[in-house]
Write a structure and sequence with these properties.
single chain, alpha/beta, Rossmann fold, 11 helices, 7 strands
Length: about 270
């Protein structure tokens, strides 16, 4: 199996060409920029309306004292970042920080309703391999929402706190400086950690298999509504419904040799 069956060796200019509208699902104010700000900016530059649905208030992650002041500050930061990227003002879901894992069907319904109201056919959402519980809950809700929407809708998963297995590497070089400026809007969060530096490093790393002219890229995982409906386990358990890369399989006999010293019998 060659390298390009594991990860793309060519950059994409847009994850879903011909999109009519994009909704970015963000667990907290800043995820819509850190995770896929380049993608959002590229769509906005192409004339496609882009809007973020920010699910929680982010009130538990700020310089003390936290609470109402932090919530208001983070909302203003998100509005400023959206303006930098050329996106529409964000919508706020007003869930409490770290509460999405108990939101259940109401969260799925909110996403479906907002997709319809925005007229979006592309949903950008965190990947299921994220480590923050709000990110994982948003990822699973996004999969359910896409399953409920009609044919012609596409789910695009992005990475923030944990790398995903991409089937699209998006060249964000044309909007790289714009994403940097948008990340700089989140002063309340950058005072806690240099998230912009970490994300920049990730975006540069994603150019490893791409031509030298690509200075920064976002790793994305694209699945159509049909793929999400017919093979949801492929999204959750690192399968690959998109034909760019096949799931890794070890050579015949490798597992048997690995477990033989431990006297483990393989079924």
């Amino acid at each position: 199996m060659s390298e390009d069956q594991h990860i793309p060796y060519q950059a994409s200019s847009l994850p879903v060409p011909g999109a009519v509208g994009v909704l970015v699902l963000a667990p907290h104010p800043d995820d819509e920029v850190f995770g896929c700000g380049g993608c959002a900016a590229l769509y906005a530059l192409s004339g496609v309306p882009v809007q973020a649905l920010i699910l929680t208030d982010g009130g538990l992650h700020g310089v003390p004292p936290a609470g109402v002041a932090v919530v208001a500050a983070r909302q203003e930061e998100a509005r400023a970042a959206a303006k930098v990227l050329g996106c529409q003002p964000p919508i706020f879901g007003h869930y409490a920080d770290r509460s999405l894992s108990t939101a259940g069907g109401a969260l799925v319904n909110l996403i479906v309703r907002q997709m319809k109201e925005c007229g979006a056919d592309v949903l950008l959402a965190p990947s299921v391999w994220e480590i923050h519980p709000d990110h994982r809950a948003a990822a699973l809700a996004a999969i359910e929402a896409i399953q409920q929407l009609g044919a012609g809708h596409t789910l695009v998963q992005y990475e923030v706190g944990a790398p995903l297995l991409p089937n699209v590497l998006l060249d964000i070089t044309p909007v790289w400086q714009r994403k940097q400026q948008a990340m700089a809007c989140f002063g309340s969060q950058l005072a806690l950690q240099a998230y912009d530096r970490h994300i920049s490093a990730l975006n540069v790393f994603r150019t490893y298999t791409l031509p030298a002219a690509v200075q920064a890229a976002e790793g994305l995982r694209v699945a159509t509504q049909q793929q999400a409906k017919e093979d949801p386990f492929g999204l959750v358990f690192q399968g690959n419904p998109h034909p760019v890369r096949e799931q890794f399989l070890p050579p015949d006999g490798w597992l048997a040799r690995l477990f033989r010293p431990h006297r483990q019998k393989l079924v």
